[in-house]
Design goal:
mainly beta; OB fold (Dihydrolipoamide Acetyltransferase, E2P); six-stranded mixed beta sheet; 11% helix; globular
């Protein structure tokens, strides 16, 4: 039987943690006290303050509310198209993020 690591988290909780990696669907994975959290608006390697937006028995969801240690690949988005946007990610690694989101191989890009 799986343990319920998310039971200690509550909607609205603010937590500082480091983002681990991109997940299918456009979220990024982080963990807190063993609980899995899918975070929007993050980049792997960043230290962020997140706000828990939903809790569940096997995973939780959250949004970034502050970036304490930004990734070198974070850029100011030109606009906010929607809540699942990755416009905050530098174009040079955006293909890798998109590939992970849709589980595809990124196109080969030649640097000139």
């Amino acid at each position: 039987m799986a343990s319920n690591k998310s039971s200690a988290l509550k909607i609205g909780d603010l937590i500082e943690l480091t983002i681990e990696k991109v997940a299918h669907g456009g979220h990024f994975i982080a963990r807190h006290d063993g609980a899995v959290i899918f975070v929007r608006h993050a980049i792997p390697g960043e230290k962020c303050t997140i706000e828990i937006t939903s809790t569940g028995s096997s995973f939780n969801r959250a949004d970034v509310v502050a970036v304490t240690e930004p990734s070198e690949f974070r850029v100011d988005p030109p606009c906010r198209l929607n809540s699942e946007s990755i416009l905050h990610v530098d174009i040079h690694i955006a293909w890798a993020v998109v590939a992970a989101i849709f589980n595809i191989s990124p196109p080969h890009i030649n640097e000139h």
